[in-house]
Amino acid sequence: MSRARTLSWDWFPGTIPDNVIVDDTAYIETSFSFQFFRSQVPGGVTYGRGASTYLGTMFDVGSTGRVTLGDCALVHGARIICDAEVSIGDHALISWNVVLMDSYRVPLNAQERRRELELVPTRPLRLACAAVPARPIRIGRCVWIGFDACVLPGITIGEGSIVGARSVVAENVPSFTVVAGNPARIVRKLEPCDLTAHAIH
Amino acid sequence: MSETPSTRIAGWLQGELPANVTIGANSLVTGELAFKRFHSKLANALTLGAHCTMDGVHFDLGANGKMTIGDYCYFTNTVLLCELEIRVGNYVVIGWNTTVTDTDFHPLGPAERVADAIACSPLGKGRPRPEVLKKPVLIEDNVWIGPNATILKGVRIGSGAFIEAGSLVTRDVPARARVLGNPAQVIGEIP
Questions:
Q1: Interface pTM (ipTM) of the complex?
Q2: Segments making up each domain of chain A, as ranges
Q3: Do A109 and B190 touch (CB under 8 A)?
Q4: Does the pLDDT value for residue B108 go beyond 80?
Q5: Is A104 in Cβ contact with B72 (below 8 Å)?
Q6: For a tag on chain A, would you pick the N or C end, based on fewer CB atoms within 10 A?
Q7: Each residue's pLDDT tens digit, A40-53
Q8: pLDDT tens-digit profile of A97-112?
């Protein structure tokens, strides 16, 4: 994959970056999603079989970031802020205006943050991209995240779980669990099941 | 303030920057909707400092709104709703899709709200709107506000405070506090 790829249905005159791996059965609504994509690593984004991203999804991925979308994962307008790794499992459903961030992009220390902010106006894209430790986000298979929710750096959400709309996930979520609220709390448990039973092979 | 701000602003009000807006040197304002809802009639209604990046920010100032933003601020797709006063210090970061407002927008009392709905409707031509509660918002230097957060009227956010993503801030935040939640609670302190 080294030639510039465009989407015949795209309203935005952009291309899919070379290091984005797209399965033949995946769907990308628009290359606009890659406007802030700066990853230099192979597989900066990987689309699994039948994975899809729709309008409003933004891959705000730094030079060393890597995002993976599992089979039939559906991302309908999330802001993915990634400097390390954001992995989204098979059959996961991510709603609009969801924020998945594995980095704060600026130092926590105010003095260091000031220095970073003094550099922002000197950069071509005027982005904050301080080398602060990023902590990977792992979203399990068949997780459903409601609209406007935020997932903070370092969070793992176990398979089959649900995050209610507008929740802020600040602690890990076990498998087959419903969480909601800001900060998100466990609301109930779901009956665990075999998530591969209905998958298309 | 410099006479030659490197502003890349276009697409609203025929591209005219309102006369009561001052933008400092090397500050950048992008987005077609930046001044779409800018209605302030005050002199020096919006003063933006130098070296700021205002990417997709909405400056929604009412007729009597006044806003000052310091130097080296960095906002992304922030909605600033100002009917009275919003003051932002230097080195403030506000994340994607965050709203800051200094007003309740409508009265709390049901009867007043009926009057307001009529005044706002196509039938209410020229009818005055009832009083709405407004209180200034003050965001001090070095504050970091994450994406999807909401800052409500009357709040003072102390210097160096860290507002986690998605927080809804209804009360004052002490300097260097780390807050999270709806309503936002202090969960720690920034060293």
A1: 0.86
A2: 20-189
A3: yes
A4: yes
A5: no
A6: C
A7: 999 999 999 999 99
A8: 999 999 999 999 999 9
Q: What is the pLDDT of residue B13?
A: 45
The pTM of this model reads 0.89
Number of domains into which chain B is organized: 1
B7 inside domain? no
Q: How far apart are CA B59 and CA B39, in angstroms?
A: 9
- Catalytic residue annotation of B: 106
CATH number for position B126: 2.160.10.10
Read off the tokens for A16. Answer: 């899919």
Cα(B52)–Cα(B36) distance, integer angstroms:
20
Q: Rounded to 5 degrees, what angle do the CA atoms A52, A125, B52 make?
A: 120
User: Does pLDDT of A61 surpass 60?
Assistant: yes
With respect to residue B18, please indicate whether it lies within any of the assigned structural domains: yes
Domain that holds residue B154: 13-189
Which position has the token pair 């609504």? A29
Domain A20-189 superfamily per CATH: Hexapeptide repeat proteins (2.160.10.10)
CB contact under 8 A, B166 and A121: no
Is A145 in contact with A139 (CB distance < 8 Å)? yes
Q: Which of B69, B96, B176 to mutate to test the interface with A (most CBs of A within 10 A)?
A: B96
